[in-house]
Each structure stands twice: as structure tokens, then as C-alpha cells.
Amino acid sequence: MKEITLEPNAKKMAWFQVFMFFWVFEFIQAMFNFVIIVAVCTWYFSSTNDTRGDFSLSSGFWWAIRYNGGSLALGSFILAVIWMIRVLFEYVDSTLKRSESEAAKFVTNCIRYCLDCFHRFIKFLNDNAYIQIALTGENFCSSAMSAFVLALKNMGSFLITNGIGSIIHLIGKAAICVGNVFLGFFMLRFFPEFENGLGSPIGPLAMVGVMSFLLANIFIGVFSITSLTILQCLYTDVDICNQNKEDPLNNANRPIEMEGIVAMIKK
User: How far apart are CA 158 and CA 198, in angstroms?
Assistant: First the structure.
């Protein structure tokens, strides 16, 4: 009798722990992304055509802890909820006795695909909202709405940036993984101290490939959030010039690398 009463509570606690894991994981990731965002924003708006700006990581940590912790927690909470919906769907799909018809498989795969697309969209919107928080200091909801409107107004540039970024991500991850696996094979093949006592190189090389992929995913992610932040800073810069009735092409208060991009956008 005692087991029957405790089992539902144990299941609830297990699901709660899973949810907290996703929330903490997304919050830590949002924290580090926000640090990079603040550093890029301060670099951009403290640069001129003659001087280099300040790339301050410490300011990002201070802003995240002192001013914007609630917004980061809200954004990570939304992603944690979506993670739980996906996990619950997979759990229900694996426990229920579904028919093996092609129609049932098609519907299940469609739902799984829609959940994945929705998750990617919310993650993209969260990253843009964090950038708007760093630029304007507004709360999460207002920043998310501003980021969504900005992405709609400049859909072509955002699609091109994300498309090029995805290609660079794929090439970068593949190059890092293949290069490290090749280097590991070279060391196992030509260094006797590694080759002695090793039955097969497949296991160590597989471990090298997995670790290389995880590390490459972290470092390439820095490029992704940096490129997205620079794009939003650029459009914010152009909007400020237009509101002040200034020529965006002749603004000396921006990094010199942006001049050619601004000229291309104005065309």
C-alpha cells in the first residue's frame, strides 16, 4: 500500500528534476550568450573609424547578474517548457500501443517535426530578444517583440546571415572533427607508445570524434551569436541615424569594418 501511494510522488519528482535540469541548462547557456552579446554591443558602439572599441566580458556578467537575470530566467523557462513538451511527447509515443499504419507514423513524424521547428524558432527569438535587452535595457517581452519586428523588417538579411552561418557551422564542425580524428589516427598508427596494448583504434577514435564535435559545437556557437549581434547592432545604428536625420553612410561612430556593409544595405 505504501509503494502505491509513493510511486506517483516519485514520478512527479522525477519529471520535476528533468524540468529543472533543462531550465538550469538553458539559463547557463543564456547567461554565457548574454555575456558575449554585451561584449559585442559595447565593442560596436564604443568603436569609431579611428579607434577600436572595448570588448568587455566583465560588463556582460555584471549586467546579467545585476540587471537582466529575470529576463534570462524567463527566456530559459520558456525553452525548458518546450523541452518538456518534446520529452513528454516522446514518452507518450513510446509507451502507447500505436497502430503500425503508415498514416499513424506520418502524423507522429509531423508532430515531432513541428515541435522541433517551434523549438528552433523560440530559441532564435530568445537570442534576438537577449540582444535587444543588451541594446535597449527593456524587459524580455518588449525585447522579444522588438526583435521579432526587426527580423520581419529585414527578413532577407537575417535569412542570408543565418544561411551563411549554418553553412560555416557545418563546415567548421566537420573540419574540426575530421581533423582531430585524422590526428588521433596518425598518433595511434605512428607512435609505438600509443599503439602498444591497443586492440582496435575504433573506440579511441570514436571518443575523439564525439569530444571534438562537442567542443566544436561550443566554439562555433560563439560565432553564431556574435554574427547575429553584429547584425542587430548594425540595423540599430542605421535606425538611430535615420531618426536623427543623419546619413548612415557618413557615420564615424561605428567600426570601420561596417562601412562597406552599410553601403551595400542602402543599395
Answer: 49
